[in-house]
């Protein structure tokens, strides 16, 4: 477990936000599009970030990557720019997980596996619907399926590409975070591993 007590205590001591709360948009019950939430105590921020952890049994390498993303979210208590870095690392965990679970089905003739194809496969061939996404259940509605299939823009894959390639005019908004993106990545990984049967050794070596 990389999120050690020593690590958490060090962050808590590094920044006192009692007079400058950490405030940002996040999906909330009744408002899947997001509303402002605020944290002035690190204990509350820690609880929020840890609650975004994976809830399914997944391969260790996926869990480690996702936990690394959580560490960056925790560090954004000190500098919120790190939140976007955390989103990007969450995307790497998501990409690896979907390659593991769906890569054999969507592999292109040249051997490549694209995030857009695996996301589309989840909806078209693995029965994913908005009703099965915990974030939307928590908020009481909303939709993300079109952003997975590419029918709504910017698609989730386009957002990942914008973050990864530093496009200042792209869907990542010149480095700005996207409300709920981290939670959605968690939910998609959990969905992919709702029946845990890893193929990671095959995916990585071929």
Give the low-pLDDT segments.
168-174, 201-206
Relative helix content: 40-55%
Overall 3D shape: globular
The figure for the number of domains is 1
Helix/strand/pairing category: mainly alpha
Q: What portion of residues belong to β-strands?
A: 5-15%
Query: How many whole angstroms does the radius of gyration measure?
Result: 17 Å
Number of helices: 10
SSE succession: HEEHHHHHHHHH
Characterize the main sheet. Answer: 2 strands, antiparallel
End-to-end gap: 29 Å
Strand order of the largest sheet: 1-2
The total of beta strands comes to 2
Question: Taking all residues together, what is the mean pLDDT?
Answer: 89
Describe the structure.
The protein has 206 residues and is mainly alpha-helical. The chain has one domain (5-205). The chain has helices spanning 5-14, 42-50, 60-75, 81-106, 115-125, 134-139, 145-149, 156-165, 181-192, 200-205, and strands at residues 22-28, 31-39. Strands 1-2 form a two-stranded antiparallel sheet.
List the helices and strands and how they pair.
Elements: H1 5-14, E1 22-28, E2 31-39, H2 42-50, H3 60-75, H4 81-106, H5 115-125, H6 134-139, H7 145-149, H8 156-165, H9 181-192, H10 200-205
Antiparallel strand pairs: 1-2
Helix pairs in contact: 3-4, 4-5, 4-9
């Amino acid at each position: 477990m990389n999120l050690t007590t020593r690590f958490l205590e060090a962050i808590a001591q590094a920044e006192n936000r009692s007079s400058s709360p950490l405030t940002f948009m996040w999906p909330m019950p009744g408002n899947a599009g997001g509303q402002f939430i605020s944290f002035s105590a690190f204990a509350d921020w820690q609880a929020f970030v840890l609650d975004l952890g994976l809830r399914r049994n997944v391969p260790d390498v996926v869990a480690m990557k996702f936990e690394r993303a959580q560490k960056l979210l925790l560090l954004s208590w000190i500098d919120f720019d790190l939140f976007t870095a955390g989103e990007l690392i969450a995307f790497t965990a998501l990409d690896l997980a979907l390659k593991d679970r769906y890569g054999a089905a969507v592999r292109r003739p040249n051997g490549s596996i694209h995030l857009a194809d695996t996301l589309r496969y989840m909806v078209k061939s693995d029965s994913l619907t908005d009703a099965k996404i915990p974030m939307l259940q928590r908020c009481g509605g909303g939709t993300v399926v079109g952003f997975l299939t590419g029918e709504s823009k910017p698609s989730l894959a386009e957002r990942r590409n914008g973050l990864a390639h530093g496009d200042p005019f792209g869907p990542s908004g010149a480095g700005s975070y996207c409300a709920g993106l981290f939670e959605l990545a968690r939910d998609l990984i959990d969905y992919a591993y709702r029946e845990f049967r890893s193929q990671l050794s095959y995916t990585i070596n071929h």
